[in-house]
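Table S2 (text version). Query chain:
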Amino acid sequence: MQVTEAFNGNPPGEADIEDLLDTKIYEALVRESYAKELKGKKLVLNDNIPRIAKRVELALADIGIEFHKTRPTRLLLTKMSNDVKAVLSEETAIQFEKLFEGINARFQKIDERGGTNLMPKTK
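Corresponding structure-token output:
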């Protein structure tokens, strides 16, 4: 299953799991989780880059900062435990739900075929 399958309407050509989040929220998470490194620097994201994580990675690299996806992700999880609605819009929740429904449907098909091993066979 591709992440793009979770989008409604006109899905992007490519997407990572981070792209299911509202771009403004993800950018705010990045800015907050990199606040110390960004002090006195200007982070400029290129909206022509389709994937938000890649957009952030390149923008941070332009100002000499290495990007680690885990930093904004950890902050997201922390914020979700305190106030889910502050970081998870209704649209985002719907997209994640659609993604998990698709994954579950694929597992169901495997189960219906009698499959128990999800790993490819090796020689």
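Notes on Table S2: Residues 14 and 50 are 7 Å apart (CA to CA). Residues 3-96 form one domain.
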